[in-house]
Specification:
By secondary structure, the protein is mainly alpha-helical. 84% of the residues lie in helices and 0% in strands. Helix 1 crosses helix 9, helix 2 packs antiparallel against helix 3 and helix 8 crosses helix 10.
Amino acid sequence: MSDYISFLMWPFFAAVVLVGIHVYFGLHIIKRGIIFVDLSLAQVAALGMTVAFLIGHTPNDFAAYLYSLLFALAGATVFTYTRGIEGKIPQEAIIGIVYAVSSAAAILAVSHSPEGAEHIRYLLVGSLLTVTPAIVLKTAGVYSVVGLFHWISRSQFLALTFKNGTPPLKARLWDFLFYGTFAVVVTSSVKICGILLVFIFLVVPSVFAALITDSISRRLIYGWVFGLVGSAIGMVLSFSLDTPTGATIVCTFGVMLLLFAVIRKIQL
């Protein structure tokens, strides 16, 4: 039993760190109606990691992180400057195009590599069970800096998302700071848990919380509880059934949200 707990301890700590920051960003993403921006930014970051992989860097190299971050920041810039065209075409269309093109580019990039298929699989589902204490602590440090910045500037970010009250001249700057810090978070997350789990951590707990309350603070609390409970259940199931951890947690989140929706429908 002690071996079981010690094996899952650091992966669960990693999930705590990931859920903590992604639920917060999820509140903004859900309210803005740009549900797939996380998936798109994660794929752009993965493309940067793929370029680094082809050059000869491993996913845990600092150079690979820089490549991913630069690509993600480029994506953040695109999303910042395309928000203003909402009246002509939905921004989700731009987000979808960026995702599709970056996905295709990553596949083309590794098409002649003998390890290409394994690299793509790693980018999709990550390797949460093999995360090291050093990576967890380093990621927690990065997310703490991002979280502190958003806490200090919460009035600007909340006004931009929930009240649309940011002055026009400052809106684009704060939008870039939002997407830029989001890119930093996604870049660190992708190499830990993969693209699919990053998306699920962002969206599903926030959707669950939004169905319960309109209060921002309560949404955070409900989202965090959902994310941590789902992560714990998913990890236990993954370990017990010997299934991929990322995919198991994704399915667990989906089943939990479905059960909640059914119970809520019956009660209404």
